[in-house]
Write a structure and sequence with these properties.
Helices cover about 30% and strands about 25% of the residues. It is of the alpha+beta class. The chain has 2 domains: about 15-40 and about 185-240; about 45-180, no CATH class. The longest helix is centred in the first third of the chain and has 25 residues, at about 15-40. The chain is elongated and about 85 Å long.
């Protein structure tokens, strides 16, 4: 076998230009997809309970004469629980997103005695409206600014709470469990990763001396950016869609 005379597909003068164009076309598809998601962002409202602090840790050590009350109500297993709501997305969650004016219902599975404190950040934003109904914390309808965080400090009487998964009652807004701090929640971050990956491919091609391939990929990527910019400009705004 003549190894020196063997022929590989990447030795062809046409391979690298075609490979560069294919990479560029894939870049166009990826860029358009990410840009469509960025132009039509999925707004999310995250919920989670952050802390659970029992006010009586060893009930059997207390005298039977010692009673814990709130107003006229005697408490058996009082505890302070903090529940957090975080708004994520490139746009606010408007009051109109609450379908038929229904509040978001967080059922903690343990009776709520009182809301002790509500704290919202940034501090220039108003606290959302809320109501209590047994073990349920009813939030809204209210306006939630993007990247807004609201923490409810609640006095409960009973066992450690467990939030029942709420219904998806908001329009064009996904309700999720979590703290809302996940890195890959924004499509723009995926776009950044795609750009870095394409730059790495171009660098590898350049290192191999495949000028034609780099040129083909560069032309296709430029075309992809132009298409993405057009999509971002003219794509419909998901915040304008409403249920019928």
């Amino acid at each position: 076998m003549d190894i020196a005379g063997s022929h590989h597909i990447w030795d062809s003068t046409a391979f690298w230009p075609v490979a560069g164009i294919v990479v560029g076309l894939l870049a166009i598809a990826a860029t358009v997809w990410v840009t469509l998601r960025a132009a039509n962002p999925k707004r999310r409202l995250y919920y989670a309970w952050l802390s659970d602090t029992p006010l009586i840790t060893r009930q059997h050590d207390l005298s039977e004469e010692l009673k814990v009350t709130y107003g006229t109500r005697q408490l058996v297993k009082p505890r302070i629980v903090t529940v957090q709501l975080v708004s994520r997305g490139r746009r606010d969650i408007a009051r109109e997103a609450f379908d038929e004016g229904k509040p978001v219902c967080l059922d903690l599975s343990t009776p709520i005695v009182q809301c002790v404190k509500v704290a919202t950040s940034p501090s220039d934003r108003p606290d959302p409206s809320y109501a209590l109904d047994g073990s349920k914390l009813l939030i809204g309808p209210s306006h939630f600014g993007k990247r807004q965080t609201t923490v409810f400090s609640l006095l409960l009487d009973g066992r450690t709470p467990e939030i029942v998964r709420p219904q998806q009652s908001l329009i064009d807004v996904e309700i999720r469990q979590g703290d809302g701090q996940t890195f890959f929640t924004s499509p723009t971050r995926w776009l950044f990763i795609a750009v870095v990956a394409l730059a790495a491919v171009a660098a590898v091609l350049a290192a191999l001396g495949q000028t034609a391939g780099v040129a083909g990929a560069a032309v296709a990527v430029v075309a992809g950016v132009a298409v993405a910019a057009t999509v971002a400009t003219y794509a419909p705004d998901s915040s304008r869609r409403r249920r019928g």
